[in-house]
Design goal:
Length: about 150
Amino acid sequence: MAQETILDPFKLWKAMYDKAETNFNEIVNEIIHKEAFAEWLGQVQLGYLQYQELIQNTTDTYLKQINVPTREEISNIASLVINVEEKVETLQEKIEDEILDKDKSVSAEIAKLKTNISKLDKKMDQILNYFKQMEEAANKAQAPSGAQK
């Protein structure tokens, strides 16, 4: 029984907290569910949006006066840079494709030239062999007449 007579401040505080929370919760729910609260909240939001617009306009005006680009101008420049990069990449791809096509045609021309040169080399060998045979025949024809003298 001695334990029941001792006052526990934590139990007292918890009981007060629970009761206050319940009352506060009821009051807040009543206020939130009223149409007047919704209208007031709409006015607060409208006021905030007007304030935000005023700040944006003031900032834009100030930035123009000190000759600094605004966020919108920087965004426009960024999009223009991206477009230029895409065009450069497209041109680079076209140039590379043309170079590759030219390389293929040049390679084909080189192959044709090699074939033609090897054919010419064979014909030149045949001509040289023919001249050697002619020279040997001429030497043989001259050798007997020179031996008779």
